[in-house]
Fold each of these.
Amino acid sequence: MIRILKYLFLFLCCVLLQTSLASWIRIFDVAPDFILIFVVVAALRQGPVAGMLWGFVAGFSQDVYAPVEWLGSQTLSLTIVGFVIGQFEERFLTLNLPLKVCLLGFGFLIDDILYYVSIGVDRGNFPVLLVTKTLPECLYTMLCGTLIFSFVFRNKPQRTHVD
Amino acid sequence: MLRLVRLLQSFFCLGHGTVLLVFLILLSVFLRKSSDSTRENIAAGALASVYYPGQRILSSVNQIRSLDAENERLKKENARLRMETVDAREGLKELARLQELVHFDNKWDYPIVTARVVGRSLGRLLTTLVVNRGRAQGIHENMPVFTVRGLVGRVARVSENFSRVQLLVDPNMKLSVIEERTRVVGFLEGSDGVSLFAMIPANTGVKVGDTLVTSGLGGLYPKGIGVGIVRVIHQGDVDVMCHLSVEPFQNFSRLEELFIMQKEPDWTVQEMLTE
């Protein structure tokens, strides 16, 4: 229960960062995605079940503020990202920092591609969005993720298996 | 009860969470494929219940954050406005004379409410904003939202003290526009949450750099609010309509203060159009 509250608090902090800090540190309309960083941290720390549950919560939170026609898109993509990244934690218990940051970038790409497919972005606009929006934001998120990961993953995680 | 929870937990964790994954994906697909009214109800229910306290906290933090900067900015703006007031008075006199001359129908004669942006859509694409004015301040759905630069969008949803603003770049946003120089009427929409596109009849002399403003047709927006500048014209040899890429007058991600025009939609116009 305490762990859930702890992650809920972290999630609220990330939402706060996303709505305030992200607009301050925006460069040429490119901002990092702190909510995705949170989902990846949860998945790496606690495995696929917690990862996808937090992905679902975070995605739904983003969806309710998006156009109602897109409801479920971010939920779907972040749930899958949580599950996929959580699998990596289960298989490789000791990941170094660069590998974790690479997983963050990988998660970002999966998230954006699934999201664009889900909201039905035109085939013509798809590569343009990937190059002009996804790629710069992915790199910026990885940069911010490096700082956050080096702080969050200082100590070895105390894993508790839910199954 | 505890046993039921444990049973559910062990069921969902089967296959390293595969069962839960399938369940959550089905739930997401249900959200995605459900009818518009169902989705509207789900989003409205979530915003009014679970997310309401969070939204309050976020808006409070954002307000505190912006108070100092706003104070300083307002002082400077106040000094500038004092200077401009003198010019404006002269301008108003001149405008009154001109209006009399051209029998200008002043359709902008509506009360204006100033609102501050307290929230943005968290998703990848910025399509909605939350502002700190709602039903208590006389705001209703479908009221036009703009800044001094031009049109921002419309009020999509209203709660007691907050409103959700649908931006021009929202893919569901469609409005009638007119090109200022050639007076050609066209149709503007946000295509994918990022850019604006307009469709106008081909070979009407519209050029890159021309300005689009609201046409006043449809009864929702008054005539003459700036929308954007034509940046690219896509037209084939045999096309009867040409597509324009339009650059809006403002950067939606940097909006802080907005104006809401307390203009109720003229549904009579809409009804007559659909008849």
Amino acid sequence: MPETASAVRELSFGEAIREAIAEEMRRDHRIVLLGEDVAEAGTTFKVLKGLVEEFGTGRIIDTPISEPGFTGLAVGAAMTGMRPIVDIMFGDFMTLVMDQVANQAAKIHYMSGGAWKAPMVIRATMGATRRSAAQHSQSLHAWPSHIPGLKVVVPSTPGDAKGLLKAAIRDDNPVVFFEDKISYTKVKGPVPDGDYVIPLGVADVKREGRDVTFVATSSMVQVALGAATMLEAVGIDAEVVDPRTMWPLDERTLIESVRKTSRCIVMDEGYQRYGVSGELVSVIQEGAFYDLDAPVKRLCAMHVPIPFSPSLEDATVPTEADAFALARQMCNR
Amino acid sequence: MQTNVELLTEDTGVRERLVRMYRQMVAIRLFEERVNDLYTRALMPGLAHLYLGEEAVAVGICEALRTDDYITSTHRGHGHCLAKGAQPHLMFAELLGKEAGYCKGKGGSMHIADPKTGNLGANAIVGGSAGIATGAAFASKYLKQDRVAVCFFGEGALGQGLLYEEMNMAQLWKLPVIYACENNMYNEYTHYSEATAGEISDRPKAFGIATEIIDGQNVREVYAVASRYIERARRGDGPAFLQLNTYRYHGHHVGDIARAYYRPKAEEEQWRAERDPIARHMEYLVAQDIADGAALHAIEQEMAEQMEAAVAFAIAAPYPDPARVAEDIYA
């Protein structure tokens, strides 16, 4: 954590998100938040609870159920002097806003030769195992990561979530910020008091180790850390690296870790096929090829529409046991 | 929905305005004729969607706007950009892909944008700018700037859901935005009646939005009605929807030459002969003794010379350095 911040408290992932938004809104009156049931309801996840009491309905704005509509409106507002945050309740609804995000927000700066810019944040959720079935469970962070002009953030801890969200809000570009909905209440961690910003494009080594690197994103960071603890028992010292942002991507930190450990498993809750894991593996093998003792492996969501039944859904997401077994196999121990 | 469009022609300011609108329409026509020429001579890359025949719509509306008001434009957008104050030589430079163009050659014909004149950009997704225009109106209201945003779109955009989501929020929140629907009757190569159920004007009315049907070939009527609703929006009384009936003289794009399968030649000839916005306005100016034929001819000459110089500038201008291709992706 940066040294400028003083006291450190324990907050949940959701509380850290709320605190980042509140602090930024106090700092900059151009920030408004638009989304479905974000005001009095504080979103369906209650993450924004209390914000409307402080900032009023003129800044915490309940919209109709019109994701493309309020996202497009935010693009225009961002271009003309505001810094809107839009709330996409379920990341699955990225499908609905992709024209406004990928064709409008992402491109206006380039298409206009740098004349216009769209400083906005699109907050969306991700993550399965809430028994919400195929249209409320996907992790679609690969989609915006594919588009030049967008930045994509996938925080894993409360401390990172707060610092990265503040950076996203202050960024002059459209930033898509994915929040793992399971982490909102389940993941707690230290968050420094006061104002601090984590720059976009800086990976974080969550645990140091010598034998194998887990490069893990968002929800998979906790899974990788759990597997690393299990691996201690069999004498395997695992490193866990969290890229924190899909773009900009801190390629150097990933490559340096794998050059040290010579083995790597990329863990991501997005679909494996044509997902961000493929890009991460490519970057790592290109940069660390001569130091690798084994092909880089992946653990990602199964390529299936996410099923409802708990017994089926749980089979689609990588677990600590999966990561433990694969790491042992790669290390021959 | 008849509107009294008789302007007080004894007023000097009004007389100047009437002549200025003539000049602007002529400028757009001459600009577009040169685009057609450049394109057919293979000097212009990409696509060209001409605004010929629709000049009165952009000119009448933009005449009612302030420089700091906003517009969003379309793939058929040269007329909007010029009417809002874009400079022809920088437009031509952009159309030819030159560094000197409005977007440094990165946007082209379908993406002219210019913050100095409030042009938020032409958009090549049909209906795609409805959010941007409505968002600009939202910002204007939130930041207490009393600016109005005009969203230009063709009747083809009536098939896009985004437009209705934006109109709903604009009316709920009384945003200062004008939805300017240019009904040139053809969604690309399809007559709009084959794609549009019910009456166009019933759609905005369903949201309670003030709606007018306007003769888009009469620049004075366009100006008079647009002024009224733009000032109404500026006062905080909410959005309006203007249906501007007009006609696209050329095809969907320059290459769309054999059009008989979707619209009769006689129809095109009739619109040109009987309803041309520039000819009609010229007759009015002469009949009302606001300008004589010689003065109007002089304007044409002046505009023609300006366009020739603008084309020459653009042709002579250098292409962007390929080494700069990755600039401007991020702010």
